[in-house]
Design brief:
homodimer; 352 residues; 2 domains; 16% strand; globular
Chain lengths: 352, 352
């Protein structure tokens, strides 16, 4: 199953079937959970880590037996190559931190990549659910269901006063982080992104680039997530982000309409050139691919390019990533080889 | 007939059927001729200019009657709009100088644009023949045939000592200028163009950009022509340029092979991106179009792009010119409108 997942460029979320997928690429719910009677991962010895992995194995069995959550399997990161782990990072199935030192760590994966559970990352368990479009509520319900199954097979560290206990206090309480990945070429193109996103930052959410903290907003993509996990109910946290997402969606749609009314020819030119280059280039850097991708996605969503499915566009995000490229090729490649392979994969995907 | 010519993007030379058309776009022979008993055009009054135009009318009739040279018609520049004259300049059928002050001037055009005769430019008559590829000898024979017909209906100013007399002494003697338009993306791309062309400049030829003196070598195109018209026989002049052209062709082919052996991926990337942009852009400046054209022509000639005919590529040179664009559209256009129209025409030509 692992190889299927690593090779697949079309996880469930790429279908783009969720609501407001013109702006919201995906919605994610993450629950931080820890086991009673075990020290947090950063304080654990090898034996304790192994024991937690044993409990995680029971979680996998529980999920498979309870049904309705799909088919799950646990993979120890130690059994994977660095390249395989990096593909999981690119797919957002594990965090960069989780992949770095694989000892004593694992990930439980659902077959369609909707659910992943990191074992012995910063917390013993981090349950993640990824849905297409704006489906925070649905992802939250789904994650809650998985959480219930997990809780039925092991004991969480929970305090009536502090809620779920977590390794880092900023996650304590609900242990809930909800986030949306939004594509804002309209706001970026009209120079409004900074203004809109900093205003939103005052509402208790964090705005980051594509690959989490410390990365820039490449391809006009931004990750918006709640900051506060304590002192609000789970429903409040999720509903707050749903409301904020709605505002972002409205602003982005207005900005796209503004672009079209003010500079239709320039927008069409940019969109079509990007599409032309992606379909013909023989050498394509990761950065350039993402910039061009952003223009093409906007063009497809604005019906300037017709007949280009949202799924194909979303899949480009997968197939242009460096580790995925190398995994598909079956070997490590130099940056130049990757740029050639990237161009070949994109061409193939867009002209088939 | 004039409208047919002005609208046509496919004059005979665009077929690219001549030898060495991978490097030589076209070959041109120009004969400067003047009438006895008339002052040179810059010294002529209106009545004399009219009289020369009358003689030119007889030339047209003579060409049509003698047969074998195609069908000819004379057009007075005064009867044309500035835009129509500019299209003739872009088609190299008249010189920029000829179009500027249209009074007392005319052009005799052959239907397939192989022959044009400017009347009352710097000299009374300038017979021009334009052939595809390296066909200087053929163009010279053809021009000589036209010259014979002209001479059979009127009297040339000719001196046994100085040969054909011309308004500017640099054209006296044979009155012959032979030139080739060459496309040298290989030499430009390997930074050898300067070296090769300056070496050639020492062999008594002039090297210029696309639209004659004072223009730069846009699109890696260069016009190479003889400098000397006196003291050499016509055959020597033509053969000298044929020899020089052969050297340029060899150097250019070697340079293209070198590019492919040293940087195949980069060449393919450049060629295909150019093709992609030309097929998709919505706004295209004249300069950018010419740069991209050059890459695409090289790619087609090197078989990197297949199924793209030389004629289609050559026609792009016509349809991207500003006056042609406006003539086809039937009105004057702003630079921005032209850039949009240019992109539309190129897209249509490359995707049909």
């Amino acid at each position: 199953m692992l190889e299927d997942i690593l090779r697949r460029s079309s996880p469930e979320w790429t279908k783009g079937s969720g609501p407001d997928s013109d702006v919201v690429i995906s919605s994610r719910i993450r629950l931080a959970r820890n086991l009673e009677l075990f020290p947090f991962p950063h304080m654990m010895d090898e034996a304790a880590a192994d024991e937690v992995l044993g409990h995680a194995g029971r979680v996998t069995a529980g999920l498979n037996e309870s049904g309705g959550w799909g088919s799950f399997e646990m993979f120890r990161l130690n059994d994977m190559s660095a390249l395989e782990r990096q593909v999981l990072v690119e797919k957002h199935l594990i965090s960069p931190q989780h992949s770095q030192d694989p000892r004593g760590k694992a990930v439980i994966l659902g077959r369609d990549e909707t659910v992943s559970i990191m074992v012995n990352e910063e917390d013993h368990l981090r349950i993640q659910c990824l849905f297409s479009g704006l489906q925070l509520q649905q992802a939250f319900v789904f994650a809650g269901g998985v959480d219930d199954v997990v809780e039925s097979v092991l004991d969480y560290a929970f305090s009536a006063q502090h809620g779920y206990l977590t390794a880092c206090p900023t996650n304590a309480g609900t242990g809930l982080r909800s986030s949306v990945m939004v594509h804002l070429p309209g706001l970026v193109g009209t120079n409004q992104a900074g203004k809109v996103l900093s205003a939103i930052g005052k509402l208790g959410v964090a705005v980051r680039g594509l690959y989490g903290e410390g990365t820039e907003a490449a391809g006009s993509m931004f990750q918006v997530s709640n900051q506060i996990t304590l002192g609000q109910s789970e429903a409040e946290i999720v509903n707050n982000l749903i409301g904020i997402s709605g505002q972002i969606i409205n602003q982005e749609r207005k900005a796209r309409a503004l672009l079209m009314s003010q500079a239709r020819e320039q927008v069409e030119d940019r969109v079509w050139r990007a599409y032309g280059i992606l379909r013909t280039a023989r050498i394509l850097s990761s950065d350039e691919a993402l910039k061009l991708w952003s223009d093409v996605r906007m063009g497809a969503e604005m019906n300037l390019i017709r007949g280009l499915s949202r799924q194909v566009v979303n899949e480009l995000l997968m197939i242009t990533r460096p580790a995925f490229l190398q995994y598909v090729e079956g070997r490590e490649m130099s940056p130049f080889e990757r740029d050639c392979k990237r161009a070949a994969l994109v061409r193939e995907r867009l002209t088939s």
